């Protein structure tokens, strides 16, 4: 229900809890509509406890409550209960009843396909029982589960199990958000891992019967992650079992519950026939991410939810290091930057902008954002660049030694770096407190042997950062000679002032600068330099990121000129791409990335930055024209590239094979622009793996030759939810702009459009919103369709509704007509009398 005045929670108001929780014992008697939860919690008041206790609790029916065995009558509100308590340690016992089968919000204890599962982060535990549901309250949990299910799981180690009964004990003190319970008719894919100090750990991946064949890859990724964290961070696993459960209905990707990770099935289940190379890579990264949380999140957790980036930024940083080690580091870096620009930049540069460590919120679930996660990881990457790899390792050792078992803050985190390295991080801390993407402008000058690079930084004021101050920006820079030699190798230039110059003496010739190598800081870089530099860097840069970036910048410049001045595709870009494609020594995955164009939404952002109003249809047309021109220009090499990168060995989802497939598929797509769909149809017919099958289907749909394949695909895969999500999504993604809304609308009428499943909802409506020209088609049909569905979903699942609202965040970039249509839809949703707190907060911020 909508609060009359939604409450805003502030970081500055943080107060410790008045009690220690010395132990927690929970007993679950499972029933779909009437699960009973008994709690027995030992509390010890701190000196200023104040004689009463507040426990969070939502949607609970209290059956009984006792303190030290005596019945009590607490005062109950929609948010929890308050009860007078003794001035000495006491035992709280309560019994509540909950209704998992009707829990469609997928937060707390809920049911998915007949199995029980939980999601407690951030504040879901309060939907299970009355408890101080805050991350700084840590305790040891014992859990008993009674229910007629073959598999009954909770955190920690199993202590007892018999038919319909199980007991679990987790020796590591943890906050309630890491609690988990799973019960159901599941099968285990099992393995074993021995830690470097000799602890034998049982590993299980629990899935629904029928999914056994999709477990092997996830299991291997888990073992690789466990070894990597020992080798690189010196972190060992600390329980006798590690369980992972796959669940079909899940709001996010996965959850790091202690010893019992719960995964969206899309983030763990994979077989060559059903998952693409990209799916495999994502699964490997998410398994690693959740496993790495065992130390960065669980052993050391967050004091309060404002500190979310303490665990998320660090764990994303760690999982990207892992992927770089397992696969290609340059390819991973480029993919991360593409993702940052697509998801974090719009957030940082629009009405939802917030610091990496926010200072206020209404609904914490709305702050599981690209800024907290991905920019949070970028900030750690910068820190590592500034203190060096050794300084970073020293600081991390100190962090684990000093804070193990604690609930910490960003201040604690920065202090270990200051203590370990002696560096003052006061200015660096602004990366955590200021919202917005800094713009860095670079120009150069040359006076007889002296070369000067001058940088300026600019951060636009925003609601949360009205008076921005200069940040420390590490700009990795190298200087190249005109023949492509490295005159000055990469070094970190530290930009700390608003404007600052760096001088290089004694150079034999005026160099070409390669600036912001490896994307060393999350900024928008303006190069006030001739465009020829980019063509030169595309051919010669020794830094793989900047070489790719040079191609992107040439494509961007060409597209902008096409859109603004009706220019023809830039020949330097096309020739540069031709040269790159002919370089057989270059990693195929890297060359495939080179063939991509800047995202259309990113072009809209650039135009907006230039003070113009982006026209989504014009951006679409220019992008299509440039792709056609690229296909033309590469026509002599495409057939050879396509042929040379076919994989004829048995399918393996490794970096080497998937790189070859991605270049072959990128060339297939370009070839179809020249010669039509025959080659794609042949690939579709012969495909024995999903990567090939889906890539071919995408080309067929784009070429309007996909009807037969679409039917065949549906017949082949209608039994497989994860594959059908792809079938739904691809049709929307490959539709022409004027057909996107109608295609999505039609798919929502399909018998298998189970809209209460977040994956399925996103596969259609998320895909629609990600089609820039289709979502922003001037009919406004997509805006209306999305609003209709958000209205329908909000009462069922506020979290997924609120997340999807973010697709409207860029609305003020567009013309008045589009703005008026979007405003009308936002207002239509906001006018609903019982809109969730989640959606209300998001739409209010977006509406402005
Ligand atoms: N901690 C999880 C992860 O990063 C994300 C869970 C967040 N869930 C939520 N409903 N807010 O892996
Ligand atoms: Zn995480």
TrEMBL record:
InterPro entries associated with the record: Aminopeptidase_N-like_N, Aminopeptidase_N-like_N_sf, PepN_Ig-like_sf, Peptidase_M1, Peptidase_M1_dom, Peptidase_M1_pepN, Peptidase_M1_pepN_C, Peptidase_M1_pepN_C_sf
GO molecular function: alanyl aminopeptidase activity
Keywords assigned: Aminopeptidase, Hydrolase, Metal-binding, Metalloprotease, Protease, Zinc
UniProt key word Metal-binding: yes
Residue ranges constituting the Aminopeptidase N-like N-terminal domain according to the UniProt record: 49-178
Domain Peptidase M1 alanyl aminopeptidase Ig-like fold: 436-527
Protein's UniProt name: Aminopeptidase N
Superkingdom: Bacteria
Enzyme class: hydrolase
Pfam family, one: DUF3458_C
Species of provenance: Roseobacter sinensis
EC number: 3.4.11.2
Catalytic activity field: Release of an N-terminal amino acid, Xaa-|-Yaa- from a peptide, amide or arylamide. Xaa is preferably Ala, but may be most amino acids including Pro (slow action). When a terminal hydrophobic residue is followed by a prolyl residue, the two may be released as an intact Xaa-Pro dipeptide
Similarity comment: family membership: Belongs to the peptidase M1 family.
Cofactor(s) for this UniProt protein: Zn(2+)
């Amino acid at each position: 229900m909508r609060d009359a005045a939604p409450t805003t929670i502030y970081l500055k108001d943080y107060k410790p809890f008045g009690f220690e929780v010395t132990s927690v014992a929970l007993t679950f008697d499972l029933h779909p509509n009437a699960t009973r939860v008994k709690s027995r919690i030992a509390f010890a008041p701190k000196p200023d406890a104040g004689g009463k206790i507040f426990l969070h609790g939502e949607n609970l029916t209290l059956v009984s409550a006792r303190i030290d065995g005596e019945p009590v009558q607490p005062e109950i509100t929609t948010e929890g209960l308050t009860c007078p308590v003794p001035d000495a340690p006491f035992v709280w016992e309560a019994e509540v009843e909950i209704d998992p089968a009707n829990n469609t919000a997928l937060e707390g204890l809920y049911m998915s396909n007949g199995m029980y599962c939980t999601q407690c982060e951030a504040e879901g535990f309060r939907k299970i029982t009355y408890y101080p549901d805050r991350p700084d309250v840590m305790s040891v949990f014992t859990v008993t589960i009674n229910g007629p299910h073959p598999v009954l799981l909770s955190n920690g180690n199993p202590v007892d199990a018999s038919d319909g009964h199980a007991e679990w004990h987790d020796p590591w003190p943890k906050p309630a958000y890491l609690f988990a319970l799973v019960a159901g008719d599941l099968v285990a894919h099992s393995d074993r891992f021995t830690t470097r100090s000799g602890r034998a750990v049982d590993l299980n991946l629990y899935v629904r019967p029928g999914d056994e064949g999709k477990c092997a890859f996830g299991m291997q990724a888990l073992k690789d992650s466990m070894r990597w964290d020992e080798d690189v961070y010196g972190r060992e696993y600390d329980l006798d079992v590690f369980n992972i459960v796959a669940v079909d209905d899940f709001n996010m990707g996965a959850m790091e519950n202690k010893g019992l990770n719960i995964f969206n099935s899309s983030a763990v289940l994979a077989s060559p026939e059903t998952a693409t190379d990209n799916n495999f890579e994502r699964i490997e990264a998410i398994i690693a991410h959740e496993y790495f949380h065992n130390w960065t999140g669980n052993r050391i957790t967050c004091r309060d939810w404002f500190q979310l980036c303490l665990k998320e930024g660090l764990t994303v940083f760690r999982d990207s290091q892992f992927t770089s080690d397992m696969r290609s580091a340059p390819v991973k870096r480029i993919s991360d930057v593409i993702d940052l620009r697509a998801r974090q930049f719009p957030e940082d540069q629009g009405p939802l902008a917030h610091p990496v460590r926010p200072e206020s919120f209404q609904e914490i679930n709305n702050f599981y954002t690209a800024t907290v996660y991905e920019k949070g990881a970028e900030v750690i990457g910068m820190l590592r660049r500034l203190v060096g790899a050794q300084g970073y390792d020293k600081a991390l050792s100190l962090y684990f030694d000093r804070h193990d078992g604690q609930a910490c803050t960003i201040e604690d985190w920065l202090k270990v770096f200051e203590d370990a390295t002696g560096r003052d991080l006061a200015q660096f801390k602004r990366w955590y407190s200021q919202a917005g993407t800094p713009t860095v402008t670079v120009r150069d000058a040359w006076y007889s042997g002296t070369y000067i690079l001058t940088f300026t930084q600019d951060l636009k004021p925003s609601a949360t950062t009205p008076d921005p101050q200069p940040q420390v920006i590490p700009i990795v820079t190298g200087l190249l000679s005109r023949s492509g030699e490295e005159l000055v190798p990469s070094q970190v230039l530290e930009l700390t002032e608003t404007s600052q110059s760096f001088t290089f003496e004694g150079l034999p010739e005026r160099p070409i600068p390669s600036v912001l190598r490896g994307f060393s800081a999350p900024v928008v870089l303006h190069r006030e330099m001739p465009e020829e530099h980019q063509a030169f860097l595309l051919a010669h840069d020794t830094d793989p990121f900047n070489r790719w970036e040079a191609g992107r910048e040439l494509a961007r410049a060409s597209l902008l000129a096409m859109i603004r001045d009706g220019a023809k595709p830039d020949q330097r870009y096309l020739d540069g791409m031709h040269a790159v494609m002919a370089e057989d020594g270059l990693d195929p995955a890297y060359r495939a990335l080179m063939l991509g164009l800047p995202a259309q939404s990113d072009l809209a952002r650039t135009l907006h930055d230039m003070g113009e109003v982006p026209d989504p249809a014009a951006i679409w047309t220019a992008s299509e024209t440039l792709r056609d021109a690229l296909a033309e220009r590469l026509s002599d090499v495409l057939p050879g590239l396509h042929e040379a990168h076919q994989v004829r060995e048995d399918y393996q989802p490794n970096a080497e094979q998937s790189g070859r497939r991605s270049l072959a598929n990128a060339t297939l797509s370009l070839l179809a622009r020249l010669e039509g769909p025959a080659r794609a149809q042949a690939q579709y017919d012969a495909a024995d793996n999903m990567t090939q099958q889906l890539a071919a289907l995408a080309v067929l749909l784009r070429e309007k030759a996909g009807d037969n394949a679409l039917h065949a695909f549906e017949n082949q895969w209608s039994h497989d939810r994860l594959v059908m999500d792809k079938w739904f999504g691809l049709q929307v993604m490959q539709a022409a702009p004027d057909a996107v809304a109608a295609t999505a609308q039609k798919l929502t009428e399909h018998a298998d459009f189970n809209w209460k499943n977040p994956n399925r909802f996103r596969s259609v409506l998320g895909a629609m919103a990600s089609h820039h020209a289709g979502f922003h088609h001037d009919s406004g049909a997509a805006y209306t369709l999305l609003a209709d569905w958000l209205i329908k979903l909000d009462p069922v699942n506020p979290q997924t509704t609120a997340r999807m609202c973010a697709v409207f965040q860029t609305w003020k970039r567009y013309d008045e007509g589009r703005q008026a249509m979007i405003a009308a839809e936002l207002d239509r949703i906001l006018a609903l009398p019982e809109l969730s707190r989640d959606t209300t907060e998001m739409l209010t911020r977006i509406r402005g």
